[in-house]
Structure formats: structure tokens, C-alpha cells
């Protein structure tokens, strides 16, 4: 590594004096862009748009993570733009002792009918048989909730009695009634059971959705919605390596048959993000639709292909292709505009294979450019021309100790996941992956939103890739090329 060219400046006077040593910056407490309350963490989101006050109510399972025997009550925050959020508010509390079915509360959904709000949710109790039942609370205002103790639903005989959860209720314009989706295991295979009701009290079972290659894997947190002429069904796979993600299928009606969406080249499109958008569900104001999931507090999966449950709220805007039915993920507009103060780009070190001209860097094979620390939250934008590059990207936690570096790699050469993609690496360890379409001109417009240890990269208004990078917060970052010459132009930093 050599010193910077004369258009570069000295290291920022933040942290250690040479700017490259790793520092351990605090990550606890409130997140304001990727919402997390001051105390506790966000579990499965259950978003609901309330037309009465034109506000998104982001209900979620509050993870206190304090060892108590009853946990995961439903709390909520509200937003109008997915860029700022109101403080934490309680909605539905867990049962107070082991005699109550909802000792733990599981995922559900909210729907309005004749001026009353109905919240269907999962009551989970390992001390009871069955462990899981569907329960109901109602409210006149989305704030004060009353449990309807006379309402319970159990799994039908052919289903696993202890895996019957995550009710999602919507109004079906074809059946002229409400339909409830419930995730369960039927005849040894994961499926989505269905029920109909005209009054939200009495429910009749209808044919299940079973066209999924899931074996005994339960399909969590289902959602269903219409965009344009297409219907979409979403669900999350809890334990499928490397596909522990939120998926979607597309159909011409809410009856299916549900298919994997494919673009004009026949390439499959079935996810919204990588591993760090789990339990994703959606809400729409009639114009824009957003998907919200949680980003784990852990940086990597453990031996059972699980991530630490709960973390911070991740939300993307989703749009549909009217021809192919493929869904794309974009940054919410207000979040993009939230970081409006331009910060001077300050490079610390350039390798021999890098040339710099103002905010444009040509990075040759094996080259890297390291940039000064940012504050805890920032927006980073750039355009990458990969006409002559195959493997390149960005890295965070780019201190002098290479074990601190996490690399977001654009891999346009290898197809070991079956397609070109974005990858997260720590050293030689692959931590995360999401598919990436390569445009004909091989140019990528990139926006990065970082807050403390969470980083989401948006590419070409099509792909979102979220990661937990524990050593990113307030440490240097870099651009690099592992194969070929990559042109990083118009690099901008905003706070």
C-alpha cells in the first residue's frame, strides 16, 4: 500500500491517529433508520396500513431477550415513509403464566371490518397440548386491544397439532369473503392451510396450498397480495441451506397455481434479499408496497443453519414487472432522501493498481482503495462500470487487521450458487448470498445505507442485499477488485 495522490486528504481525526486501527464502536440502543427500540429487539413484523389515519402500523414480536418464561408480546411502531418511526408502543401482551395458551405469542395479522380491527395471532405454549392454537384480539383504534377468549382454532386432524401458526387474513374479491392462510405440516409436508369466513368469527376449511417442495419444512409467515394483474404469495423457509430467506411465488389468481417467477431470459426470481430479511410480510397504501422483515443480531448462521432470532426492522419498497411478474426491491424514497448532508470523500490508502481522479477510482486486479471512517449512519452512492471486471466490490471494517474485513463481492464470473450474485465474505467464509442480474452494459448504480452494524446495498433499483457487519461501525471501508479492472465513479457519502 502506498500513500494517497495529492487529491486525497489526511485521515479523519476520529479514533486512532493513523485511521486504520480497528475500533470497537458501541452498537447498542435505538436504531432510527433500521428501526429497533432502545430496549429489546424486533421479531416477526406484521405490517398493516390504516386508511383512517394514512399510517403504516408496523406490529412485531418484541424480543426482550431477558430470560423470562413468557415472551414475544406484540408491540408496534408507526411510520408514514419507512424512514422515521415513532417510539415503541405495546399492543397485545402474552399470557401471564403457563396455564395460558399465549404464554408466547407468535406471528399473525391485522384486518379491519366494519370499524373494528381484528388481530389474529399464534398462541404458543410448550406446557400445553397442542402447543399452538390461533387466537384473536380486537380493537376500536389499533391501540387498545381486548383478547377474545372465546375464540380458538386448532389444527385439523391431518395436520401436525403442534405446528399450526402465523395466520394471515385478507379479503378475497373472488370469493366475496375473508380468507385465512395458516402455515402447518400436513401429511408430512409443509403446506399452507386455508379457511374462509364472512364474519371473521366462524371459519370453514378449504383446499390447502401444497405445491411446494418443502418435505417436512414448515413455511413460516405467509402473506398474499395483488400487484397489477398478478397475485403474489410470500413465505419464509426456516431451515433450508442456503435458502433461509423470504420467498415469493406468482399466480394469475389467489387460487394459484403458484409458480416461480422468471425473467425474459428464463432466470428464476424468488427472493427479496439474502439471509438478513427473514419473516418478511408486506403492506401497501394503495400506491406503494413495502416488505418488512428482521435482520438478526448475529453475523452468521450457526451449525443448525439458524440465525439468532430477532434484531432490527428491514424494509424495502417492492415493484412488479407487468410482463414477467418478477418482483424487484428498491430503497424507500424517504430513506434515500434522509441522508442529505454531503461529506467529503477522504481516502486513506491506495494500492499500486489504483488511480484516482476526484471521486472516480479505477481499481485494477488485486487493487483496493481504503476510505476514512464514517459516523454511525451514512448513505454511500456510486456507479460501478464492470465492462472489464468479473469480481469486485466494497468492504467494511477495513482496518489494518484483515480479519476485521467483510467483503460484499459482485461475482459476475462464478455460478456456484447457480447464478451471478452478490456475496458476503469474511475471509474465506461465505456468510450470505443473493442473486444479481447483470445488465448488458455491465453498469451498476449502487446505494448503501449503513447504520451501526447493519448494511443494506441496493443495486439498479432491482436488488437489495442486507448484512450484519459487527465491525463496520465507525471503521474504514474500501473498494476493491479481485478480477479485472473496475471503474468506481461519482462516489458520494452523505450523513
Shape: globular
Helix content: under 10%
Q: Report the sheet-strand fraction.
A: over 45%
Q: Helical stretch count? A: 1
Distance between the termini: 28 Å
Q: What class, by secondary structure content?
A: mainly beta
Question: Which residues form runs of ≥5 with pLDDT under 50?
Answer: 1-17
Please tell me how large the radius of gyration is: 23 Å
What summary fits the major beta sheet? 13 strands, antiparallel
Mean pLDDT: 91
Question: What's the β-strand tally?
Answer: 34
Considering the chains and any ligands shown, give keywords for the structure:
4-stranded antiparallel beta sheet; disordered N terminus; mainly beta; 1 helix; 50% strand; 495 residues
Question: What can you see in these coordinates?
Answer:
This protein has 495 residues and is mostly beta strands. The protein is 1% helix and 50% strand. The chain contains 1 helix and 34 strands. It has one helix at 333-338, and strands spanning 41-50, 55-63, 74-79, 89-92, 104-113, 116-124, 132-139, 146-147, 159-172, 177-186, 189-197, 204-209, 219-227, 230-237, 246-251, 261-262, 268-269, 278-284, 289-296, 311-320, 327-330, 342-343, 347-350, 354-357, 360-363, 368-371, 377-396, 406-411, 421-426, 429-435, 443-451, 454-459, 463-468, 477-494. The strands form 7 sheets. Strands 22, 23, 24, 25, 26, 27, 28, 29, 30, 31, 32, 33 and 34 form a 13-stranded antiparallel sheet that branches. Strands 1-2-3-4 form a 4-stranded antiparallel sheet, with no helix packed on it. It has a 4-stranded antiparallel sheet with strand order 5-6-7-8, with no helix packed on it. Strand 10 and strand 11 form a beta hairpin. The longest helix is centred in the C-terminal third of the chain and has 6 residues, at 333-338. The protein is globular. The two termini are 28 Å apart. Mean pLDDT is 91; it is low at 1-17.
Amino acid at each position: 500500500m502506498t500513500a494517497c495522490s495529492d487529491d486525497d486528504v489526511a485521515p479523519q481525526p476520529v479514533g486512532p491517529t493513523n485511521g486504520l486501527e480497528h475500533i470497537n464502536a458501541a452498537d447498542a440502543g435505538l436504531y432510527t433508520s433500521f428501526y429497533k427500540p432502545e430496549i429489546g429487539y424486533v421479531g416477526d413484523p406484521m405490517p398493516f396500513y390504516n386508511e383512517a389515519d394514512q399510517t403504516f402500523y408496523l406490529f412485531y414480536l418484541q424480543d426482550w431477550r431477558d430470560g423470562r418464561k413468557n415472551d414475544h408480546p406484540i408491540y408496534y411502531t408507526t411510520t408514514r415513509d419507512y424512514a422515521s418511526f415513532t417510539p415503541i408502543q405495546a399492543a397485545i401482551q402474552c399470557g401471564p403464566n403457563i396455564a395460558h395458551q399465549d404464554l408466547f405469542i407468535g406471528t399473525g395479522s391485522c384486518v379491519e371490518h366494519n370499524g373494528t380491527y381484528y388481530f389474529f395471532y399464534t398462541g404458543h405454549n410448550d406446557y400445553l397440548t397442542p402447543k399452538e392454537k390461533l387466537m384473536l384480539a380486537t380493537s376500536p383504534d389499533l391501540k387498545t386491544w381486548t383478547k377474545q377468549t372465546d375464540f380458538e382454532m386448532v389444527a385439523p386432524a391431518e395436520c401436525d397439532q403442534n405446528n399450526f401458526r402465523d395466520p394471515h387474513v385478507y379479503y378475497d374479491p373472488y370469493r366475496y369473503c375473508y380468507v385465512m392462510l395458516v402455515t402447518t405440516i400436513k401429511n408430512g409436508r409443509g403446506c399452507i392451510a386455508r379457511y374462509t369466513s364472512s364474519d371473521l368469527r366462524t371459519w370453514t376449511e378449504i383446499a390447502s396450498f401444497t405445491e411446494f417442495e418443502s418435505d417436512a419444512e414448515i413455511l413460516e409467515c405467509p402473506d398474499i397480495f395483488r400487484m397489477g394483474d398478478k397475485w403474489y404469495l410470500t413465505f419464509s423457509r426456516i431451515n433450508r441451506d442456503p435458502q433461509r430467506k423470504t420467498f415469493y411465488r406468482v399466480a394469475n389468481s389467489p387460487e394459484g397455481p403458484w409458480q416461480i417467477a422468471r425473467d425474459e431470459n428464463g432466470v428464476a426470481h424468488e427472493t427479496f434479499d439474502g439471509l438478513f430479511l427473514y419473516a418478511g410480510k408486506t403492506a401497501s397504501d394503495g400506491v406503494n408496497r413495502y416488505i418488512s422483515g428482521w435482520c438478526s443480531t448475529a453475523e452468521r448462521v450457526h451449525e443448525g443453519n439458524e440465525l439468532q432470532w430477532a434484531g432490527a426492522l428491514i424494509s424495502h419498497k417492492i415493484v412488479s414487472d407487468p410482463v414477467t411478474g418478477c418482483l424487484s426491491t428498491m430503497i424507500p424514497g424517504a430513506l434515500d432522501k434522509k441522508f442529505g448532508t454531503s461529506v467529503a470523500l477522504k481516502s486513506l490508502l491506495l494500492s499500486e493498481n489504483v488511480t484516482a481522479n476526484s471521486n472516480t477510482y479505477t481499481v485494477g486486479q488485486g487493487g483496493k482503495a481504503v476510505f476514512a471512517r464514517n459516523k454511525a449512519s451514512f448513505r454511500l452512492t456510486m456507479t460501478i462500470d464492470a465492462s472489464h471486471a468479473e469480481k469486485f466490490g466494497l468492504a467494511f471494517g477495513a482496518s489494518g487487521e484483515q480479519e476485521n474485513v467483510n467483503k460484499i463481492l459482485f461475482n459476475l464470473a462464478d455460478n456456484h450458487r447457480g447464478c451471478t450474485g452478490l456475496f458476503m465474505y469474511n475471509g474465506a467464509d461465505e456468510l450470505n448470498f443473493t442473486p444479481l442480474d447483470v445488465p448488458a452494459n455491465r453498469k451498476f448504480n449502487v446505494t448503501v445505507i449503513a447504520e451501526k452494524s447493519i448494511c443494506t446495498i441496493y443495486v439498479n433499483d432491482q436488488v437489495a442485499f442486507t448484512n450484519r457487519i459487527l465491525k463496520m461501525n465507525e471503521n474504514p471501508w474500501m473498494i476493491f477488485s479481485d478480477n479485472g479492472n473496475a471503474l468506481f465513479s461519482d462516489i458520494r457519502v452523505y450523513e
